[in-house]
Every structure is written in structure tokens, then in C-alpha cells.
Amino acid sequence: MQITIITPVFNGAKYIRQCIENVINQNCDSVEHLIMDGLSTDGTQEIVKEFAENHPHIRLISEKDKGQSDAMNKGIAAAKGEIISFLNVDDFYEPGVFNRILEIFKDLPEPSFVCGNLNIWNADGSLKHFNKPNRISLVELVSNCFEWPYNPAAYFYHKSLHEKTGLYNTQNHFCMDYEFIMEAAQYIDLKHVDEIWGNFVMVTDSKTQNAHQETLETAFEAGEIVRKKAIEGFNEGQLTLLASILSENKPMLLPEKPKAISTSRKIKNKIKSLFRQA
Fold it and tell me: Could you tell me if residue 256 is inside a domain?
């Protein structure tokens, strides 16, 4: 078996080197690293080509895409490995994960989806959250009461799973991975392994870190649509189980809108404070 790691990137020169080195340092002979570059102009391509000269497992495909989901889908089509995972340029795997994945998958039916635990880090290096998605049946995911696999650095699956789910939704820009996982859970039993596999970094210039409240609300609404669609296909037993889960657990809610004070307001308040002190 071979693993294909797919990294969608556009102008990621600041992080692409450490991303590539993280895959190299896994010391796994059965891996290819597929860099899906959206015609970067900041030197990203040159860095990848530099590494590829000495590491034949690295492949660069540089062409215009229609966004992250489209780049992911192109990577899936080009992947040579039976097992795939996605690594964003600013995230990283724990040591030894790839060889562990190959060991696990040799005994699994095809297609399978396996997730581990995930560290979510603040930009300052402090731990923001520990993601342990150990309740990931379809009904549990739909309930929105439990952790789900937040980042692909902590999950791997057979490429053939897309023959059942279809590819990532290019119209969903906020939770395309959640939609895919929800779809996958309708066909197979998702598996959790209680080991830390991935690290998700909330860097200051990332889409996630800089998301406005409107973006969070849009993502939350997109998730609601995905869940409602799944519920429409539930049988009586699944609906009964869902009702039981909701009676015993509280669904996760959208964080309250922060009470933000504009920069100009802060400056005015500071000036008033100085005058009062004078």
C-alpha cells in the first residue's frame, strides 16, 4: 500500500518548507507528497522544485484552480496511493504516523476511514483545544453534540471511498470536509484510534484565524444544512437514537458574537483618557 499526502497551496512560501520536511521526517518509504499549487507567485513553486530534485516522492502540480475544494479534488484524481490524507501547509503530523497508518490499514476493509486525535494550537504556541473524535457514528455526527474530526492532518481514508461519496463539494467553502465526513458515515463505520496523529495550527494569517463573525455564521449554517439533509434519510431507529442523544446532551452552538470595539473607538477613548489625566 501507498499513502498519498495532498497539500493544496497558494502563495504558501512562508510554510511550505516546513510542511515538506514534516512529511520527509516521517521516514516512510511508501508515501508520495502531492503539492497542488494554484500558480503561486511568492516562490512556493521554486521551493517545492528544490526539494523534489532530491526527494522523488514529491510531485508538484501547478495550475489554476477554483478554490481549495477544487484543488483537493484534483489531488485525489492524481493520487497514486490507495490511502490519502490532506496536509495544509501550516499544519503537521506527529512523528511515525505514516508507518502506523500502513499497519492499521492492512487489516481494514476497503473503503475505510480512520481518525486519530488532534492538537489545535494558538499562533503563540499555546494549546487551544484537544480534539478527540471518539463518537462519530452518523447519528452522533448529526446530533452535533460531540467532537468530529476537525482537521485532515489527523485522519486517513481509502481513496476508493470517493466512489461512494463523490468528491468534495466545490460550492462549500467553509466545511467541505465536514460534509464529506457526514457523507462517508452514511456508507461505512468511521473508526477512531486513541492516538495523537495531527496538529492544526491557528496561524495569524490563516483563513480560519482571521474569519469574521459572518464567516463563522455561514459555516455554522452550512453545517446545519448538511445535518438536515442527512436526517431526511434516517429510518425510525436512527430518529429514535437521535432523540435519545439530544435528550441527554447539549448540541454545540455558535460562539457568541464578541463585543468588539472598533480601532477608531479605542483611539478616541484613549485620547479622552489622556485629557482627563491632564
Answer: no
Q: Is 196 left (phi over 0), alpha (psi -120 to 50) or beta?
A: beta
Whether residue 51 lies inside any domain: the answer is yes
Number of separate domains in the chain:
1
Q: All 3 cell numbers of residue 6?
A: 495532498
- pLDDT tens by residue, 191-220: 999 999 999 998 655 444 444 455 567 767
Beta bridge partners of 8: 36
Place of cell 499555546: 126
d(CA 205, CA 18): 16
Rounded distance, CA 15 to CA 35, Å? Answer: 13
Q: What angle do CA 172, 80, 150 make, to 5 degrees?
A: 35
Residues forming a β-bridge with 132: none
CATH number (domain holding residue 125): 3.90.550.10
* pTM for this entry: 0.86
Compute the mean pLDDT over every residue in the chain, rounded to the nearest whole number: 88
Question: Domain limits at 213?
Answer: 3-248
Query: Has residue 209 been placed in a domain?
Result: yes
H-type helices in the chain, by residue range?
A: 13-24, 44-52, 68-78, 97-105, 138-143, 162-165, 176-184, 213-231, 236-248, 263-277
